[in-house]
Amino acid sequence: MYNSYELNESVRRALDLYSQSMIKIAFAYLKNIADAEEVTQEVFLTYLQKRPVFENSEHEKAWLIRTTINKSKNMLKTGWFKSRNPVPEDLSYLPKEENEVLQAVLSLDKKYRIPIHLHYYEGYSIQEIAVIMQAKAATVGTWLARGRALLKDKIGGLENEEISL
């Protein structure tokens, strides 16, 4: 168990290390930066309230990502979220190619979008994604393959070229 100082330091370190990744993951679900930031704040509030003890930094990161995914899904289920008309995000600050790829990724169904984000943007293996998403590794592999095929159809590419996200 943490004392108050250790807990504050642990949260501060996690905030520095993982907050940007958590915002990106929440954004992949919610497609709105303000909502993604709100979910990330809620995750850190939960961290402070529950005071979880982790085996190592990878365990901590996995807990934060899993909690971010769960809270994002919860937000998607709320009546308020379903009834509103989301304002499209302005991605004009990104280079043209990166903007096109991100728009294509965001247009995918979440069962493809989230594994692609975790694999290509966060660097997780299929096995790690399977644990995080509570799915079988073979299923995650299928989602990645189908997501890549959909992206190839959307943004094109050469016949033998791998999609680089």
UniProtKB/TrEMBL annotation:
Alphabetical list of Pfam families matching this protein: Sigma70_r2, Sigma70_r4_2
Any one cellular component term from GO for this entry? DNA-directed RNA polymerase complex
Sequence ranges assigned to domain RNA polymerase sigma-70 region in this UniProt record: 18-78
InterPro entries from the entry?
Answer: RNA_pol_sigma-70-like, RNA_pol_sigma-70_dom, RNA_pol_sigma70_r2, RNA_pol_sigma70_r4_t2, RNA_pol_sigma_r2, RNA_pol_sigma_r3/r4-like, WH-like_DNA-bd_sf
Coiled-coil region(s): none
Q: Is Signal among the key words of this record?
A: no
Q: Which SUPFAM superfamilies match?
A: Sigma2 domain of RNA polymerase sigma factors, Sigma3 and sigma4 domains of RNA polymerase sigma factors
- RNA polymerase sigma factor 70 region 4 type domain: residues covered: 99-151
Q: Which UniProt keywords apply?
A: DNA-directed RNA polymerase, Sigma factor, Transcription, Transcription regulation
Which NCBIfam families has this protein been placed in? sigma70-ECF
Family recorded in the similarity comment: Belongs to the sigma-70 factor family. ECF subfamily.
Identify the PANTHER family for this entry. RNA POLYMERASE ECF-TYPE SIGMA FACTO (PTHR43133), RNA POLYMERASE SIGMA FACTOR SIGV (PTHR43133:SF60)
List the protein's name: DNA-directed RNA polymerase sigma-70 factor
